[in-house]
Amino acid sequence: MTDDSMQSGPFGALLPVVRGLIVGVIGFLLGGGATVGAATLLGRSAWPAEAAISIGYLFGLTGWLLGVGVWDAWARGWFGLPLRREEVHGWPRYFRFTTDHKVIGVQYLVTFVALFLLAGLFAMLMRVELAAPGRTIMTAARYTHVMSMHGIIMIAVAVAAIIGGLGNYAVPLLIGADDMAFPRLNALSYWLVPPVAVLLVSTFFAGGFDTGWTAYPPLSEVNATGQVLFNLAVITFGLSSILGGVNFLVTIGRLRAPGMTWGRLPVFVWSVFAASLISLTATQFLAAGLVMILLDRIAGMAFFSALRGGAPLLYQHVFWFYSHPAVYIMILPGFGIALEVLTHFSRKPLYAYRWVVGGFLGIVALSFVVWAHHLYTSGMAEYLHGPFMATTELISIPTGLIFLAALGTLWMGKLWLRTPMLFALGFLFNFLIGGVTGIFNADVPTDLHLQDTYFVVGHFHYTIMGGMIFALFAGIYYWFPKITGRLYDEGLGRLHFWWMFITYNTTFIPMFWLGMFGMNRRIADYPPALGPVNLFISVSAFLLGASFLVFVFNMVHSWRRGPQAAANPWRARTLEWQVPSPPPEGNFPSPPQVTGHPYDYGVPGAVHAVVAVAGAAGPGAPVEG
Amino acid sequence: MRRHLAAALLWAALTAAGLWAARVDLLPLAAAREAAIIDEAFRLLLRLSVPVFAFVLAVLIYSLVRFRVRGEPREEGPPLFGRGIVPWVWLGVTSALAVYVIFNPGLRGLAELRANPTADLVVQVEGSRWQWKISYPQYDMTVREVVLPVGRRVRFDVTATDVLHSFWIPAFRVKIDAVPGMTTRVFVTPTVAGSYEDSYHLRLQCAELCGLGHNLMASPVRVVDAGGFEAWVARGKSR
């Protein structure tokens, strides 16, 4: 097969994916078959379906990765085989094991926006069921599965959409690097994601899983086989997250352009650095917990099975030891984007920059010692309540510094209310509600009532959706001209913001009251008296869901037919705006020379960097957009 | 200076409006001493969060009105870097607030809830998918509803046979997980007579996802006077 033929036609473009699928299926059959064969030889009478699936999956995942690009990227050179050199341009790049960070960023972004919309559809189904008391469209079993799918897919989106998408795209550009430190590892992180999506969707054919995204045992040890697929998916996703974390830490640590000191690092880069510290060091705990559940299920071990001497409570500690820090993996890059956008669109320096960085690192440190605030009602030793309440309340101090910076930056600024700025301001408002309601959950007395109710649902949707997702949209609109080389439609952007902002708030504000008023979470049915409020929430939610149609239309239409974007339509000072839109492969013809702070708006004669690019803006100079 | 004054006035107005709105009671029936403690903590946190919320909102609204530029800004704002005293003051105020909240209502409420580890009545609660088994060891009775005498301190000993469940009576505000292999405890002193028929908050609701029948896993709760409780026990015994 020649390289030319690989590029011709849709089949050629999809060849690596097809190859990965074929090798993956062969691997799955080999692994699964070997497991069944071994069980037969050992005289096991029961059909070892879950063991065969798990071991088959390990082989299948390996096959998929080798087929899709790992073999070509690593093994060929290592074994001295002839290398495949191919220049792929245009859309087929996005279906390849491509190492360009900009391609990988777009791969992540499009994949996770699609997953966001899919999980949003699940939310719509949930709201149809909850629109009226009693059964509406689903059995309780189906509802619980749909709810669990919504949960875990949204968690994955929250973990990876900003870091994987905008982080991959923007971080190397922002620090003046030509790529990530480990480009092939970066591609590997992305290509670990499709198996996760396939596994999760497959749960519909394996009895589903009914444990939410938290997978608490003993339920997760006795339910349908879908749980096994869930565990394998999340373990795989965790691996992707860890590899991404290493890559960002090394990239930011080692590949900064000359003069890009830690004190001059754009705030979004700092936020990705902080989040990566957590993904590198905490994700293993979740994976370990899920592996222990798998071993309980398929190998007869008893980590969490009380009936066989295990400890169900142990899992909750292990789980939250990752999963609480994980909310900061989600929200820290959101802080970064919001502050980045607020600064450029206020035309002022980022207020209290060094305090913000201190706040980020303070959040990272504290995030590891707050996990048991999820366990106030779990039956853990009561003397732990006080200390974990204290550490949890203290995390409001570094978080408060983010608000100081945001408000200080807005104050006396020249506010330019374009779509990215609107989303950043929406982020501030929503996250404020998320933060304040978090105090009620952190406080043990009030949490005894609120734990496991819709109050908690409202709280985390305010932090993650109102916060992280609003920041994601701020970032998508902000970098859209850079990524696509085209301008999005501003009118549609504003329409999307106001539509989403209003319906978002009318959807989630009433949930606080529902929780206080006795509606527990994760239920397909509720006391009839709560019907009217639930109907109101459902109608709001459908309107909220419809707002994303405006977004999708704007993105698709503008990417294809939008007006050409200049290099720097926002007249922003950071490095990515000093190269053409979209940036060429390799980003910068020679490393930029960084000589000053990125946010010195209003400082006469301040220069962030000297970037040698023909035809692009001078350093920090205004460019007509 | 005028700018600061205007924003401060807006803050004061928003705070006043918020405190006025926070007087609306959004909490359901409170039928136990513990519920009173928890509701008091809730209201205190609500009152404390109003000025914090209002501060951010005031600065946001003021900035949007006052500093908004129509069209593309041609000039840049003053370079305020936040290197002076302001961040230290901010740090001091937010730290003081956080520490205050830890002690009040946090630790104070906890101390009140745990002040009395004795009980007049012990009720054993066992969760299995998807129903509660309620036993009164002092009377050697096992029933399907929770009946409690008003004004008496009750200890619930909670456990589960299969998966996690959670013991929650919204009108009492307390919640504790039912864990297989463990017995967890919660103390309640009911203060108001009533039943599930009067208020659906008087129900023992499972609050931890336990599979198919999770949302249906609830038992009625009835709080009666001392005489009514004795009569109920006697009726149960004679059966």
> What average pLDDT do the residues of chain B reach?
95
Task: Estimate the helix proportion of chain A, in percent.
Answer: 55-70%
Q: In terms of per-residue confidence, which ranges of chain B show pLDDT below 50 for 5 or more consecutive residues?
A: none
Question: What is the average per-residue confidence, as pLDDT of chain A, rounded to a whole number?
Answer: 93
- Number of separate strands of chain B: 11
Proportion in β-strands of chain B: 15-25%
Q: Considering DSSP H and I runs of 4 or more, what fraction of the residues of chain B is helical? A: 25-40%
Kindly report the spatial arrangement of strands forming the biggest sheet of chain A: 1-2
| Tally of separate helices of chain B | 4
What structural class results from the helix and strand content of chain A?
Answer: mainly alpha
Terminal CA distance of chain A: 46 Å
- By DSSP (H or I, 4+ residues per run), the number of helices of chain A equals 19
Q: Please provide the ordered H/E string of secondary-structure elements of chain A.
A: HHHHHHHHHHHHHHHHHHHEE
* β-strand number of chain A: 2
Order of helices and strands of chain B: HHHEEEEEEEEEEEH
Radius of gyration of chain A: 25 Å
Radius of gyration of chain B: 25 Å
